[in-house]
Design a protein that fits this description.
Helix content: 25-40%
Number of domains: 2
Strand content: 15-25%
Bound molecules: zinc ion
Distance between the termini: 39 Å
Structural class: alpha/beta
Number of strands: 19
Oligomer: single chain
Largest sheet: 7 strands, mixed
Mean pLDDT: 94
CATH architecture of the largest domain: Alpha-Beta Barrel
Strand order of the largest sheet: 3-2-1-4-17-18-19
Radius of gyration: 22 Å
Shape: globular
Number of helices: 12
Low-confidence stretches: none
């Protein structure tokens, strides 16, 4: 191109931001537990400009008609893993290169976005080091498509407190998490993770270890001491990062809560006292129901010992979830997916099957999860001024929660990625 023409083109005023009007069959604002009808959302550029009943369509706006759909804020998955791809765990860690896993992660990110999830907390790469920060940055730079991300990077556990287990002590096997011990050790590990781009710190507050096993539950032992956890929380807080604690049992959970973590992940054996403590401190619960239900469609196919343990675990998880529904505990939706990321909407189905009201399940993935991320000012509800992250599903999730698996429209940051 001749230089003069190039210069002339540069003087052309920038195009005005795209204005889009979305006419919603049904509308969930992310906060109030009602579905409204005849609502129109107007977005301008990457922001929501106006929301209301029977709004006039602005001149020049592109119009999206979704008469049979339910429109809602872009969904948030508070606990997922872009760097796992459904293979046996040790295959991911020991047989796939970091490059392959990064390519896979771009596929998982695309699937997650197209399933309607416009924001995620990626709660550790499971041995793929700082790959999640690269994925987050590549998405933000527009190189690949995917949700907004908070990256936890490597996660932290103690020596002996993470998989793979059972190898000869003579073999230096890579572990799925960073292992650190003592006040100085954990402080340095948190600083390293933050220096390499972590947005959130994940710890294993308890984990499976060699020793006695209860045949009816996933046994786990406390890992970090209170002082270690407190150091982790303090160090993370200096950089404005929250701490998420993987935990099964109440003992380790209570240590983590007192140390100041923001969320408990999984928690299938949490007791009433722990939930009371969580409510008092404003700690979120991310129950990740579907993680323990995968492969349970036909338990008869499992080896007997594993079948007994998983059936016991699933029934306790359900009982704990139902108990929590009666308490003022803040629940944020998380899938803990390790593959099949297109299936993230299944978590809503389990939450409702276990007794949660459909719109409460939706709210756990909108207002609830955005609060846990600390992004409640930007996302999580559809209101003027917030980022234009909008999802729509086919049908009415109140009548049929499986409609959450039929995403028909996805807008993130004002850009449409999926439409009927
Ligand atoms: Zn997980």
């Amino acid at each position: 191109m001749p230089r003069s023409l190039f210069a002339a083109l540069m003087l052309v005023p920038a195009a005005l931001p795209q204005v889009t009007a979305i006419r919603c069959g049904r509308f969930f604002d992310g906060r109030n537990l009602t579905l409204r009808e005849s609502v129109t959302i107007v977005t301008e550029g990457n922001r929501i400009r106006e929301v209301g009943a029977s709004l006039a369509i602005p001149a020049g706006a592109q119009v999206i008609d979704l008469p049979k759909a339910t429109v809602m804020p872009g969904l948030v998955d508070s606990h997922t893993h872009m760097f796992l791809h459904g293979a046996p765990y040790e295959d991911s860690l020991l047989k796939r290169s970091l490059q392959y896993r990064a390519i896979w992660a771009t596929v998982a990110a695309r699937k997650t976005l197209l399933a309607g999830f416009t924001s995620i907390r990626d709660l550790e790469t499971e041995g793929a080091w700082y790959g999640d920060t690269a994925l987050r940055d590549a998405i933000n730079d527009g190189l690949v498509i995917g949700p907004r991300m908070q990256a936890a990077t490597r996660a932290l556990s103690i020596t002996g407190g993470y998989t793979p287990y059972g190898y000869s002590p003579d073999v230096d096997v890579p572990r799925g998490a960073q292992l650190a011990d003592g006040i100085d050790g954990v402080r340095k590990a948190v600083r390293e993770q933050l220096a390499n781009g972590a947005d959130v710190i994940k710890i294993y507050a308890d984990h499976r270890r060699r020793g006695a096993h209860d045949p009816d539950m996933l046994t786990a032992y406390p890992t970090f001491s209170f002082e270690e956890m407190k150091t982790i929380v303090e160090e993370a807080a200096k950089a404005g990062a929250k701490v998420a604690a993987h935990v099964y049992h109440s003992q380790a959970a209570q240590t983590a809560i007192r140390a100041g973590v923001a969320s408990l992940e999984h928690g299938m054996y949490l007791d009433g006292e722990t939930f009371r403590l969580m409510a008092e401190k404003g700690v979120y619960w991310v129950p990740t129901l579907m993680a323990y239900l995968q492969g349970m469609e036909d338990p008869s196919k499992l080896p007997p010992a594993r079948r007994r343990m998983m059936l016991g675990t699933v029934s306790r998880h359900k009982e704990t979830f139902q108990r929590a529904l009666k308490l003022p505990v803040k629940i944020a939706l998380g899938t803990d997916l390790s593959g099949n990321h297109e299936n993230a909407g299944q978590e809503f189905v389990w939450m409702v099957q276990y007794g949660m009201k459909p719109l409460e399940a939706l709210r756990s993935s909108t207002l609830g999860a955005s609060g846990l991320m600390g992004w409640q000012d930007r996302i999580g509800t559809i209101e003027a001024g917030k980022l234009a992250d909008i999802t729509a599903v086919d049908g009415d999730p109140v009548a049929d929660i499986t409609s959450m698996k039929r995403t028909v429209f996805v807008m993130k940051d004002g850009v449409i990625y999926k439409r009927p």
